[in-house]
User: What shape does this take?
Amino acid sequence: MLEVDKDRARHAVQPQHAFLVTLKVNGEEHRLNVDARTTLLDALRDRLHLTGTKKGCGLGQCGACTIIVDGRRVVSCLTLAVMNQGKEITTIEGLANGALHPVQQAFIEHDAFQCGYCTPGQIMSAVGLIQEGRTRSDDEIRENMSGNLCRCGAYTNIVDAIKDAIAHGLDPREAMTQAVEAIAQDAGREA
Amino acid sequence: MYAFTYHKPSSVRQAAAMLAKNEDAKLLAGGHTLLPTMKQRLASPSALIDLGAMPELKGIERKGRSVVIGAMTRHGEVAESAVVREAIPGLAELAELIGDPHVRHRGTIGGSVANNDPSADYPAALLALDATVITNKRKIAADEFFQGLFVTALEEGEIVTKVSFPVAQKAAYAKFRNPASRYALAGVFVAKRGSDVRVAVTGASENGVFRWTAAEEALKARFTAKSLEGMAPSPDGMIGDIHADSAYRAHLVGVMARRAVQAATSR
Amino acid sequence: MTGTGIGAPVRRKEDQRFITGAGRYTDDLSRPGQAHAYFLRSPHAHAKILSIDTAAARAMPGVVAILTGDDLAADKIGGLICGWMIHSKDGSPMKAGPHPALAQGKVRYVGDHVAVVIADTYAQARDAAEAIEVAYEVLPAVVDARAAQKAGAPQVHDVADDNTVFRWHLGDKASTDAAFARAAHVTKIDLVNNRLVPNPMEPRAAVGEYDPGNESYTLFTTSQNPHVARLVLSAFIGVAPEHKLRVIAPDVGGGFGSKIFIYAEETVCVWAARKVGRPVRWTSDRTEAFLSDAHGRDHATHAELAMDENGKIIGLRAQTIANLGAYLSTFSSSVPTYLYAPLLSGSYDIPAIYAEVDGVYTNTAPVDAYRGAGRPEATFVVERLVEVAARELGMDPAKFRKRNYVKRFPHQTPVIMTYDAGDYGASMDKALELADYKGFSRRKRESARRGKLRGIGFSSYIEACGIAPSQAVGSLGAGVGLWESAEVRVNPTGSIEVLTGSHSHGQGHETTFAQLVCDRLGVPIENVIIVHGDTDKVQFGMGTYGSRSGAVGMSAIAKAIDKVIVKGKKVAAHVLEAAEADIEFKDGKFTVAGTDRGVGFADVALQAYIAHKFSGQDLEPGLKEGAFYDPTNFTFPAGVHICELEIDPDTGVTTIERWTAVDDFGVIINPMIVEGQVHGGIAQGVGQALHEGAIYDESGQLVTASFMDYRMPRAADLPSFQVGMTVTPCPSNPLGIKGCGEAGAIAAPAAVMNAITDALGHEDIAMPATPQAVWRAAQKNAAMRVAAE
Assistant: This one.
């Protein structure tokens, strides 16, 4: 369990708006005192210093802040930290377990990004997509990755990377299980 | 966002009590409309009442000749529901076309229905399928529920708990997406039940979702896309914006209606 | 070629951090004691500021300071600058109005900076900004450049009559008019090159810091060229002395030009950090990015092409009105002038060209370089003209192009440029084959059977990259030289640090530059690190834009490597007790010619530093060399893109079915990275052609200020691409590199629009060809067909 961020905690939070929440991120529980307005994205970045999740628009329109909550890919900018009490949250930092996750490896192999800014969101979205099994054709992959903008225009290679991750033995239905198990193992070791 | 208080009641009764107690309180369902609005400081509720902790608002079940969907059911859950896919495949297809996967994993049917955004998809399904909106106080027929742009029959303190969709023999949805936002620019849901045919249009009218009665009459005569050949509603009263002026929108309604009928008749 | 040398598709060294969330972008940094800045922006496109009352806001919780243009003036902080002087036809210098970092007396576009609030938290700063009372006298606004030049239009800056910043021209009017007078056929078109919002996924951000002990400043910023930022901030704006200002551009999440410029926000963060005694951070939200990042394009052009009776092009003339926005951004004046008109010869041998360009102020966001910068606009003009001309002449568009290609090199165009090398016909032939051009009519018939309109369009682009010979650009008005610098530091262990003035924000420099080092010095790629983006670490350099980092930045590295090898030979001569002239260097080893005696690179590095084998008086210890490389010419990447698409006439939806790109980028260091650059360029070019367009309403409000209204290309919009290469090495730099970063964005718009107009059978459609626009155009097409029948 991590300490509450003292530096930030000194900012006056009016009592009726403040909440003590427990966020379970990448298998680790964090107790935080947050203003009700704090989005999950801001809590991850500013309070837990997990800056791998990026803010591209803050309005749920670009997918850069995609994370996985209870097995589903969601944008972390449009959910409040207080709404996510006790849920299983996986961020890009929690995906690799010693070795890279197959989707991460495939992104490297297929040059599926350039500037890297939308990449954590693309990867988390791809992990969710594979788990949903919406990968039966290129068109289906493209359609179901359309919530994640990439201004570098690496879309073609992203599609190839996703297909490759599946071809290299990542059973769609196991993608999430694998990530979650990895996290659980990590947490187990540290506990 | 401006400051607000946050509440997470565990029953609809509690939620209603909180709603009564907090002036300017808003119900928080998926948050995908409300939160961005608040972030842009275009809304400033004093309190948010999160409906996320109530099992009674979740779930999809077949009840006799209807499919009943809890208000907090996510779009993605409707899209993937075996019950919906079997009973009203057009409804599952509609859910699958909402926004993007991220939106579908958070957005709820109750939130969509209560907000009555003129570009939202669900209102078209409710209207065409002659659905009933069930609240903590009463049952409201879809025809009475949607009353214009962002206006519904919901009264103060009233909470949507379920939506009940009678099963149709044939039903389908065709949507032309706003190219940028992926909301409906013209979305048409057609449903045939016995001799009754209903055609509901979303995304197009300045008054929100509406029934296109001329198309209904044409389809009652013969339920085939050909019956709508060359038909389009009048551009008067259609939304005009940078993506589609009213004439193009009216035209698209005609095209989408034909495509919806085509889809409904070809399964 | 070794496994990691030049030409190898090496997987990127920088990837590991990006895919694990360990990249460090400006907004990821947290500085002790930091305060947050929020900019109060003008809600009006044009207004006088009568008063700013900050009293209530200052009393708000957490507020540290509120600063306005008056405070800037009191501290004698200068305005933002435009670094390229353009002279009008009459010889007069461009009319540049003042550009303060915070408005002084007037606001000129929606999003213009009125005041900055600095507070403990971002939310507090934003809350307080709402409590600032600004009294505006709203003035009429003008957003369209053509309207802005009309008599009676609102005057954006007093200094520029008719809002016209310059009336510039290039080429010989008399000979061009003469060519048109004797032409057998003249093709005329009117084009709009739509305004684009760059939208890198990482919004701009800045953190300013002041260290009172050293009286020094640090600026972390999302910049493509940190040294230029430092130079401008110190020498022109005057917020800090150059030697006491450290500018760090860490990982940068895309730029596409928009992060070249020196903006108000970073200026204010540096200045305010000293005033408030705390680090001051600012991160743009997406709305601010839409409103205040420099936009791209926004040209209106009338163009004409003259042909003789054999279908040979004999002249081209163009009149362009370029919307520059409300202020002149850092390089804005160069984009519609010297980065545009010199490309109007395209890949063609055109004996006479004359272009006139007016640069115009409007009440819109400043317009500056966006991927391609001037060259996409030129290519669009030339390639639309050529396509339409071929149609009017009843010629096959590919054959018409081939007939008119430049075939002998070097080729001097009538508009400055000397093309050094290329084989445009070879690119066209390869593209026609890859695209199965012969099968197109069959595919068109097949589409027609399904009620769809199929079209094919070409774009045979050329661009001038490798920007640029300093003396040449200096004579054209540039305020800076456009060379690049490098330092190659060989450590005693033989590992190598390369300090480059280039800056990577997605281009993969950490890999390609290392490949060059591996190739030349024979060291393992793991032993090479590329250092960039920090003015305290890296010598002065010019940064990354204009597809210059390979051609110019790597040439500087190559030059420094050559010096390292020369020095290494001297050291090796001592170690091997041989004459320096007998030492050869190959495959990472110094050997005595004709013998098997040799010493490895790492050993030489160690010997250079311990200096035991030679006298330090005869030979300086150490192994570290620097170089500045100034190119001798622009480079001229060129190629042919072919777009094949299908239109659904019922809805106007356009689907790109096939895309073929054959590019000649000269020598390629890493084909994988180059292909990625091509993909990205095409995505942005297709975005411009089909989807994107910034729209201001008449009052100057930006209607497309979010992704809900501004249509970005998404995964579902693009097909897989057929990418082919032809190679004619560039003779103008030591590596033979031409550059690849902008090609796709330059080529794509014309290819798409030529395909759409081919499908429609008429030319009456503008970018972006949205479903609505295409549907309407298809209605006209149907009407034409009915009339014809």
Q: What stands out?
A: Chain C has three domains: 31-139+201-254+259-292, 299-467+633-788, 483-629. Chain C has a mean pLDDT of 96. Chain C is about 30% helix and 25% strand. Chain C touches chain A through 64 residues (CB under 8 Å).
